[in-house]
TrEMBL record:
<dbReference type="InterPro" id="IPR036038">
    <property type="entry name" value="Aminotransferase-like"/>
</dbReference>
<dbReference type="Pfam" id="PF01063">
    <property type="entry name" value="Aminotran_4"/>
</dbReference>
<keyword id="KW-0663">Pyridoxal phosphate</keyword>
<dbReference type="GO" id="GO:0009098">
    <property type="term" value="P:L-leucine biosynthetic process"/>
</dbReference>
<dbReference type="GO" id="GO:0009099">
    <property type="term" value="P:L-valine biosynthetic process"/>
</dbReference>
<dbReference type="InterPro" id="IPR018300">
    <property type="entry name" value="Aminotrans_IV_CS"/>
</dbReference>
<dbReference type="InterPro" id="IPR033939">
    <property type="entry name" value="BCAT_family"/>
</dbReference>
<feature type="modified residue" description="N6-(pyridoxal phosphate)lysine">
    <location>
        <position position="236"/>
    </location>
</feature>
<comment type="similarity">
    <text>Belongs to the class-IV pyridoxal-phosphate-dependent aminotransferase family.</text>
</comment>
<protein>
    <recommendedName>
        <fullName>Branched-chain-amino-acid aminotransferase</fullName>
        <ecNumber>2.6.1.42</ecNumber>
    </recommendedName>
</protein>
<dbReference type="GO" id="GO:0005739">
    <property type="term" value="C:mitochondrion"/>
</dbReference>
<dbReference type="InterPro" id="IPR043132">
    <property type="entry name" value="BCAT-like_C"/>
</dbReference>
<dbReference type="GO" id="GO:0052654">
    <property type="term" value="F:L-leucine-2-oxoglutarate transaminase activity"/>
</dbReference>
<dbReference type="InterPro" id="IPR043131">
    <property type="entry name" value="BCAT-like_N"/>
</dbReference>
<keyword id="KW-0032">Aminotransferase</keyword>
<keyword id="KW-0808">Transferase</keyword>
<dbReference type="InterPro" id="IPR001544">
    <property type="entry name" value="Aminotrans_IV"/>
</dbReference>
Length: 409
């Protein structure tokens, strides 16, 4: 059966399965003994700190440059989580038969640490990323953990590496944080792994939020979808990304930045590449609206930036613009374009942050999205980007910006 033809299902089945797994762990039936405990973190600091490159040099090559240290923790079904360790960054040791190399038993997160204009280090809403990683782990039968313990490990690593790799005298920069959980059991066979490893690394990442003239999207091929109802599009697992690269590469060869993924026979708009997708338009009843795909059928990722955009618009633009989470189709965009009702569009995610969209190419025709002066973001997009950026970089004190207590160097 083609993915677009999958019938509507009870999308809460996965949540129920995770709840059952958590209950079995609590009752001692799930095999997970010792919990992940950040208070047991041990420190083995490098004796050979590497030189810190400038941002341009760090992002110029083909290899991602990481900071001096990483955090690792191993898990076994028979004993539970071992003591986490902060140690020098370096290669992992895996057997060729490791579960993650064959059966995609891996999940990850992506978030950033920012050097604020007030000199302080901040992470943006890390509790949301840690909670989502817990959900993703349950979806692919990896060991569970308390999200708060993962957040403590993130903070510990950033407290050590942040001061040197994001100097206080160089505000306005960021590093990328990648917590990852992989199945490591060295046994072939389709089964839930009984051994796993959690690791956290911190790396450089180039800015991608301002391509000249805005992001240009190409709609997905008619015979390809990114996710489907009853699948795992809502979980941050590697299996969501590798299969999308063929369409993305083809779009880039044609001069586009990303794919606008459509779903089903009606062509529902879901995500722009790996980012959430938003449209600001005037509805037929004359009301101004910002619309994005819903979460209830679990087709798309519950993006932290997505959630923040919606929250901040509801709070700060109430009465000016309505916020709607619903299914909407590419044909609705084509119609709105023909009627001159599209005001602006943007993609939102950790990597691209908030990136204005200037064009959507669909079946041989272009939908040209209005932009601000000289190809800048439109009014609503610019406001959202400024508000959230101010929180990230400490220009606005807000509970979403979690300050990292830095260790003296």
């Amino acid at each position: 059966m083609a993915p677009s033809a999958v019938p509507q299902q009870d999308v809460n089945l996965t949540a129920a399965a995770i709840q059952r797994k958590e209950a079995s762990v609590a009752n001692g039936d799930g095999g997970q003994k010792a919990p992940l405990d950040a208070s047991k973190l041990t420190y083995s600091l490098t004796k050979s700190p590497r030189p810190v490159p400038d941002q341009a040099t760090a992002n110029a090559g083909d290899e991602t440059i990481a900071t001096d240290h990483m955090v690792t923790a191993t898990w076994k079904a028979s004993t539970g989580w071992g003591a986490p360790e902060l140690k020098p960054y370096g290669p992992l040791s895996l057997m060729p038969t490791a579960s993650c190399l064959h059966y995609a038993t891996e999940c990850f997160e992506g978030l950033k640490v920012f050097r604020g204009h007030d000199g302080r280090l901040r992470v943006f809403r890390p509790d949301r990323n840690c909670a989502r990683m817990h959900m993703s782990a349950g979806r692919i039968s990896l060991p569970l953990f308390e999200p708060a313990e993962l957040e403590k490990l993130l903070v510990a690593l950033l407290a050590v590496d942040g001061p040197r790799w994001l100097p206080a005298d160089q505000p306005g920069h960021f590093l990328y944080i990648r917590p990852t959980l992989i199945g490591t059991q060295s046994q072939l066979g389709v089964q839930a792994p009984r051994e796993a490893m959690l690791y956290i690394i911190v790396t450089f990442m180039p800015r991608m939020d301002s391509p000249p003239g805005g992001m240009r999207l190409h709609t997905s091929p008619e015979d390809m979808v990114r996710a489907w109802v009853g699948g795992f599009g809502y979980a941050k697992v590697g299996a969501n990304y590798g299969p999308s690269l063929m369409a993305t590469q083809d779009a880039r060869r044609r001069g586009f930045h990303q794919i606008l993924w459509l779903y089903g026979p009606q062509g529902e708009c879901t995500e722009a590449g790996a980012s959430n997708f938003f449209v600001v338009w005037v509805r037929k009843d004359g009301k101004k609206e910002i619309v994005t795909a819903p979460l209830d059928d679990k087709l798309i990722l519950d993006g932290v930036t997505r959630r923040s955009c919606l929250d901040i618009v509801r709070e700060r633009m109430a009465g000016e613009i309505e916020v709607t989470e619903r299914k909407y189709t590419i044909d609705e965009l084509v119609e709105a374009d023909a009627e001159g009702r599209i005001l602006e569009s943007f993609a939102a995610g950790t990597a691209y942050f908030i990136c204005p969209v200037s064009q959507i190419h669909h079946r041989g025709k272009d939908i040209n999205i209005p932009m601000g002066p000289e190809g800048t973001a439109g009014e609503v997009t610019a406001k959202i980007k400024t508000w959230i950026g101010d929180i990230m970089y400490g220009r606005e004190q807000h509970e979403w910006g979690v300050v990292i207590p830095e260790k003296e160097q």
